[in-house]
Amino acid sequence: MATPHVLLVEDSCVDRLVASRLLKSFNIRVTAVEGPMEALTFLDMEHDVQLILTDYCMPDMTGYDLLVEVQKSPKLNHLPVVITCTEDIPERIKMCLDGGAKDYIIKPIKVVDVPRLLSYI
């Protein structure tokens, strides 16, 4: 199997660094961006992303908003999206999963979460 490519969307530089290092330790190629608009711009140019891992709480656009944009796009709607958040809010989790997210993981991302993420690729 080729090296998986994950697009990490995270506004916190610390969380972005921690998640990137963890994923890279599993030989996963990571492209990290600070927000949903940057992610959509990158996705418009890049065609080998296999999973979007996005924070929920970000300024301007939430991870759910990004999920909706990905789902609406015929070019992108095949991509699995996993939402991460520090908050365990059942209504939010249900909304994200009902909206098409493959999973909702409570941050921080842990070693035990990585095989689960890879299963969506």
TrEMBL record:
<protein>
    <recommendedName>
        <fullName>Response regulatory domain-containing protein</fullName>
    </recommendedName>
</protein>
<feature type="modified residue" description="4-aspartylphosphate">
    <location>
        <position position="55"/>
    </location>
</feature>
<keyword id="KW-0902">Two-component regulatory system</keyword>
<feature type="domain" description="Response regulatory">
    <location>
        <begin position="5"/>
        <end position="121"/>
    </location>
</feature>
<dbReference type="InterPro" id="IPR011006">
    <property type="entry name" value="CheY-like_superfamily"/>
</dbReference>
<dbReference type="InterPro" id="IPR045279">
    <property type="entry name" value="ARR-like"/>
</dbReference>
<dbReference type="GO" id="GO:0000160">
    <property type="term" value="P:phosphorelay signal transduction system"/>
</dbReference>
<dbReference type="Pfam" id="PF00072">
    <property type="entry name" value="Response_reg"/>
</dbReference>
<dbReference type="GO" id="GO:0009736">
    <property type="term" value="P:cytokinin-activated signaling pathway"/>
</dbReference>
<dbReference type="InterPro" id="IPR001789">
    <property type="entry name" value="Sig_transdc_resp-reg_receiver"/>
</dbReference>
<keyword id="KW-0597">Phosphoprotein</keyword>
